[in-house]
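May I ask for whichever protein you like with its backbone structure tokens?
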Amino acid sequence: MTRVISAIIKHPAEAKEFSLDYVLLLLGAVEQLCWAKGHNPKISLKAAGITDNPLCSEQEVAYVNCFMLPSQRCLEGTYLWDCEAK
């Protein structure tokens, strides 16, 4: 696993050859790792790039909710936001 992650970091262009199932598996592994370590970071809606609205921009959400789940759904083609799986 370490070799795969290191290869992705050093040569990201080669990761485009990965199957969609493999990418989803890697995302799931990151989510499980965070869960196992009890790590549930929070990020503000503004920092996540979700809104600039001053009324709610400082509201914090779990990183898993604003990044992991939308990323998985975009890759699966089931998310309602404007995203493309390439």
